[in-house]
Amino acid sequence: MRIVFVGPPGSGKGTQAKVLCERFSIPQVSTGDMLRAAKAEGRLPAEIVQAMASGGLVPDLVVIKLIDQRTAQADAKAGFLLDGFPRTVPQAEALGTMLGANALRLDAVIALDVPEELLIERAIHRRTDKRTGQIYHLQYKPPPPDADLEHRHDDHEDVVRKRLATYLAMTADLLPYYEKAGLLTRVNGVGEVSEVTDRCLAALNLVVNRGGSHG
Ligand code: AMP
């Protein structure tokens, strides 16, 4: 199973990606995680650190090389779930070329759909207990009176709106590209975690059943 997984910040994409990876015994491959690891080890050039810090994109060639190396490793031979890559059409094209060189192709691109206003509502009501790391929602999952609450910087409305705008700009080209290729499935991301997982699995089963899965 070779999957590209796309979803706006705060959509529960990370949670769903983990479940799907366990289900299919495939690694979750995240360019963001790889870049952060390289940065922590001091292996990232200053201009790339700067691009990440400012919320901009790292050059296509850098992330394409990371994906090329990572997907060639033994644990990715039977498949992988890409999280945070591709972000641009040239990256998507490079991925297609990479896979094609090994007679492989993507099975599916899943885009989690969550309405913008719901994402903002969730973020502005989300609080974390600094001592326990437990996450609360001020209305739907209220914290206990003794909690030491923090409202994360990137959960403030202005920052959330900016991150969503970046996501929309990214997917504006990417999703139509995969739709044209017949690979895109949009999954309703509103509901309980298990409900959304079931929808993702149903979407992937359809792909397998129509013979879209290779090796
Ligand atoms: P993420 O954790 O996926 O949000 O990635 C963190 C940061 O790494 C992003 O804000 C970008 O600066 C950089 N990055 C991660 N993946 C990519 C990608 N596919 N293309 C360009 N930049 C990326």
DSSP strand (E) fraction?
Answer: 5-15%
Gap between N and C termini: 8 Å
Strand order of the largest sheet: 2-3-1-4-8
- Which CATH C-level class is it? Alpha Beta
Q: How many separate domains make up the residues?
A: 1
- Tally of separate helices: 8
The succession of helices and strands, N to C, reads EHEHHHEHEHEEEHEH
Rounded mean pLDDT score: 92
Shape estimate? globular
Query: What is the third-level CATH name, the topology?
Result: Rossmann fold
Structural class: alpha/beta
Q: How would you sum up the major sheet?
A: 5 strands, parallel
CATH homology superfamily: P-loop containing nucleotide triphosphate hydrolases
| Number of beta strands | 8
Rg on CA atoms, Å: 18 Å
Query: Into which percent range does the helicity of residues fall?
Result: 40-55%
Low-pLDDT residue intervals, each spanning 5 or more residues: none
CATH architecture: 3-Layer(aba) Sandwich
Which molecules are bound besides the chains?
adenosine monophosphate
